[in-house]
Amino acid sequence: MQKTNKRENWLAYAIGNHLSGHSERALDVLTSFESTFDSKEKSETDEVSSFAILHAGRQRVLTVLCVHIVQEKIKSAFETSELRLYKAMVLIDGQQYERALQHLESVKKDIRDVIAWHEIKGMCVCVCGWS
């Protein structure tokens, strides 16, 4: 079976598994997706660097390219953040609270929505009865 790099397909499959009560399968899909997501970002950065070197003499093209790179990096950072928070929610729905807490701590540096991170962590702590 050929795997796709389309984010929408991976997420739809993970959400479908999650909503049908197959939390473990959803987690497997999200974990697989994260590994392709990270490697894809590296290859896109390499392609942009090569393009910038080829057009280094053209100020306008380089400026437009830099703005595009910054916009894509910001978009990518928020998508990564939401994906990591969603993975924590899947863990919680699968009643894996300690694993969810470990996941939240390990991805804290990637999270852009800090309030949501604290809310999800608070849910885990309350359910586990910790203080």
Features:
mainly alpha; flat; 131 residues; single chain; 0% strand
Describe this structure in words.
There is one protein chain. The chain is mainly alpha-helical and 131 residues long. It has one domain. The chain is built from 5 helices and no strands.
Please specify the SSE layout and strand pairing:
Elements lengths: L6 H13 L3 H32 L4 H35 L3 H10 L7 H15 L3
Q: How would you classify the helix and strand content by structural class?
A: mainly alpha
Order of helices and strands: HHHHH
- Total count of domains: 1
* Nearest-integer average pLDDT: 79
Number of strands: 0
Q: How far is the first residue's CA from the last residue's CA?
A: 46 Å
Helical segment count:
5
Assembly context of the chains: single chain
Strand residue content: under 5%
Low-confidence stretches: none
Characterize the biggest β-sheet.
Answer: none
Briefly, what is this?
The chain is mainly α. The chain contains five helices and no strands.
